[in-house]
Every structure is written in C-alpha cells, then in structure tokens.
From TrEMBL:
Listed Gene3D superfamilies: Spore Coat Polysaccharide Biosynthesis Protein SpsA, Chain A
PANTHER family linked to this entry: GLYCOSYLTRANSFERASE, UDP-GLCNAC:BETAGAL BETA-1,3-N-ACETYLGLUCOSAMINYLTRANSFERASE-LIKE PROTEIN 1
Organism the protein comes from: Nocardioides hwasunensis
Protein name: Glycosyltransferase family 2 protein
TM segment ranges: none
InterPro entries in alphabetical order: Glyco_trans_2-like, Nucleotide-diphossugar_trans
Source domain of life: Bacteria
A UniProt-annotated Pfam family: Glycos_transf_2
Biological classification of the source: Bacteria, Bacillati, Actinomycetota, Actinomycetes, Propionibacteriales
Amino acid sequence: MRRLFGRAPLLGVVIPAWGVEDYLDDCVRSLLAQTHRRWEAVIVDDGSSDRTGEIADEWARRDTRITVVHSVNGGLGAARNLGVQHVRGDHLAFLDSDDVLPPTAYADLVGALADSGSDFATGSIVRWEGDQLVEPPWMRRLHRPLRGARIEDRPEILGDVFAWNKVWRRSFWDEAGLTWPEGTRYEDQPTTTRSFLDATFDVLDEVVYHWRIRPGSITQTRASSVQDLADRWETKRTSLASVRAHGSVEVEQVFVDRVLAGDLWRYLLLVPGCTPEWWRLLRSGVLELWGTRTLVGSGLPPVHRLAGWLVAEDRRAEVTSLMEWVATLDGPVPRVQDVATGAWRLSIPHTVLDETTVAPEALALRDHEV
C-alpha cells in the first residue's frame, strides 16, 4: 500500500563520462526508459576531447532531470565523487556512460529497499559477448535472493565488486563516509567492499545492468604494465585491510581464497614475455597477500593454483612453460589418479615441468574438479 500511494523515493544517478560520444546516447536513453520515473542525474564530463560534453549538454536541454558538470580529466573515481557532490536524492546510483540499463533496473533495486529497509541493494548483470547478452555464471551464483543480509550471511558476495549494479541509501553513503578512490584503476572494489562489510543489503537475482566491454577497454598491453599491476595490488591491499578490520575470520578466509584471488589467473597468463620488473611485482604481491600459504588454497582453477605456487617459488621459467603449454590445449589440463591412494592430480609433461620438484598440494585436485 505504501508503494502504491506514497511518493516514490528520489534516486540520484551519477554518470561519469569520458570519450564516449558513440555510447552516451544509448546510456541516457536507457535511463529515460526506466519504469522508476523519479530520478535526477548528473553527467560528469571528465575532460573529454570528443563530443561527449556536447552530447551531455544536449540531453540536459531536453530533460530537466539531467544536469551536466564539465571538469578537467581526473579519472573515474574523481568523476564519480564530483558527481555525488552535485546530485540530490534519497538514494544514490552510479551508471557508466558506455553501458545501459534494462527498463526495470532501478524499480527493482529501489523497490527492494522500500520493502526491506536495507542500506543498499545489488542485482545481477549481463555482459555483451558478440551480439548476445550473457549472465556470467559466477554472478548468477552470487545473486541468489537475500533481504536484509549481513556479510556473514554470504561472504562470497564480496566478489560482486561493481559500482553500477547497486543502489545505496544516500543517508548510509554519507554516514559511512564512502567515496571512490582517486588516481588509481580498479576503484570499485575498495568502496563496494566497505559497503558490504558495514551495511545491511539486499541481493536480487534480477538482471539490473547491461555491461559493455568495449574493444581495447581492457587490453593485454594495459594489464601487462607495471602501473596497472601496482594499481591492482593496491586495490586488493586496501580491500583486504577493510576485511581484516571487520574482524570475522570466516569472512576473511572466504575473501582471501574466493574473492581476492579470483581475477589473478588473468595476470598469470601474462608471465610469458613479461619484464623482470613486472615479474618481481607479481611475485611480491602474491607473497604479501597469500604468504607461505601461497595460492594453493585459493579458488583458482587447478593449473592456475600450480602457477601461483611456482610464482611464490620464483620459478619464472617454469610458469612461462606452463602457461605456454596450457595455451596449446584444446581442453582441460590432463589428470591422473594415484594407484596407491586413489587421489587425483594434474598431469604435466616432463618437458614442461618436473613434477618431482613440486609440492604435492600444488598438483592436487579437489573432489569437484575430478
């Protein structure tokens, strides 16, 4: 009854925009098509050199709910923080300017908060893969419905690191002192981590976001740069510090094993051809965050757990051989069963790696991996 006759909450939407002249129209149209009609948006033109600023100004002339702030280029985190200063609302959302929203996205998220009283809500996403929209299996797994949850109810939700599939109560955002890190890449994770740790939250299985991964937006060239890897480690370091300060051993274990290690396989693939400086930084980060336990206990796929163990042991040549060999396979890495114990492990050709020099746990398979 409250939602039928009461006034809908005002949602403030922050849209950082840089170099998106080919995408901004679609983004704004998806906002205009929302079934939740009571919103205001600020587009932050982050020093674009193309027509992004002009397009944003045109939308502001066409719809009074949209305003534009033009700023010097400061990066995504700075643009989002600037937008927060200029947008009003009972609730707060962030929309990247090259993505689009399904029509009921904000109605679903705002409606969940109205029913639950939680501090923020998060929904699932789909991403463009060619001409198709695909929901990543891990997102589907994380977004089994929950209402009024705390992080102890589902610690693995910390793997939902995105800024743009969520709606926060503005009062919670301000009281928690939340901001986005500035001057670094991968700025979503520290802030979403703090949100999950400090808040009550709703988890929706509805898809609330269409994520466009633009060609060249995440490239091997960028990922193989020392600065990119340094930013990645800083993001992980900051997020882990927040988890440890929270004080739950269970949450920390899930975070380190399942979340913190989750994207590291991308970097292991880059070891062939990496510079000595990049290798040293990779190894130092693995040792800092996983210590003597290495990545053997993590949720990485088996061959990447092995590669992580080799990184910790400073065996660069063998990581290179392993990753190059894996790239030639048409299917999974071969498995073999120990006749005496019945245990299963990876089977690596001797020309790639001398298994007798590897700790058994680094080759071992778990029951669900056989």
